[in-house]
Description:
The termini are far apart. Helix 1 runs parallel beside helix 10, helix 6 packs across helix 7 and helix 6 (about 140-150) crosses helix 10 (about 270-290). The strands form three sheets. The protein has a six-stranded parallel β-sheet. Strands 3-2-4 form a three-stranded parallel β-sheet, sandwiched between helices. It has about 300 residues and is α/β, with parallel strands linked by helices. Helices cover about 40% and strands about 15% of the residues. The chain has two domains: about 30-115, Leucine Dehydrogenase, chain A, domain 1 (Rossmann fold), CATH 3.40.50; about 140-270, Rossmann fold (3-Layer(aba) Sandwich).
Amino acid sequence: MVARILDGKSLAADLRAETAAAAAALKAATGLVPGLAVVRVGDDPASRSYVAAKEKACAAAGIHSREIHLPASARKAEILAAVRALNADDAVDGILVQLPLPDASAEREVIEAIDPAKDVDGFHPTNVGRMVLGLPAFVPCTPAGVVELLRRAGVALAGAAVVVIGRSQIVGRPLSVLLSQKGVDATVTLCHTRTKDVARFTRAADVVVVAAGRPNVLTADMVKPGAVVIDVGVNRVPDASKASGYRLAGDVDFAAVAEKAAAITPVPGGVGPLTIAMLLKNTLEAARRRRGAGA
């Protein structure tokens, strides 16, 4: 068996095109242009690159973007002040604070300071709570992208046994909630670092989603033939043949697992591109809700 490759890059392009068309229609009907503001603290290269990619994607989708850049030395009070100013700015529909912050201890308070109606990352406790209750909410972008990928790939989720490896608040936990909600109806097992014999669960799973942040967490002997495998991880693995000295790899032993799985996502080019695509979608929806523009 050779697994079907689930092309997240292609799907992300489709989603971004759909958002661009909807944003253009919104502007034509109401004159409104959705606005996204990103707060970036410090000069972490990965964060800088990611914010640049978001700005480029916004421009292509007809969404106005703005970056608020603060020095790494910025105090928590300064970051909170920037967030509150954006809360009050009617031209801003979505606010995203680029994580991690230099002072990780400030992250929770900063996230909680975002107006839930502008929380397009879906991290505010109000949105998290509404998601758990099955109420309309902004959902974290990566889990939302995984569900969208599975749906559009035609993976049968109702009644399926799904194992999610990793319990982060950004991916694992919200994804387990989304997959078990009515309308999706999967039976979900959430595994983590304290789970005894993870393979016992994955070998019985129809779908395995790995978001552990470590290479080769899922190996071929842990997967039943015909399973669908979604790799959320992005890891830098030393590789002397690369000019950078490393290559990107996921959490899955891709080559070996692809020999047993029915479908699998690559890294890069799998789940990663969907995160920004879902962010754009959330920003458009925020503009519609806040400004009463309808669906």
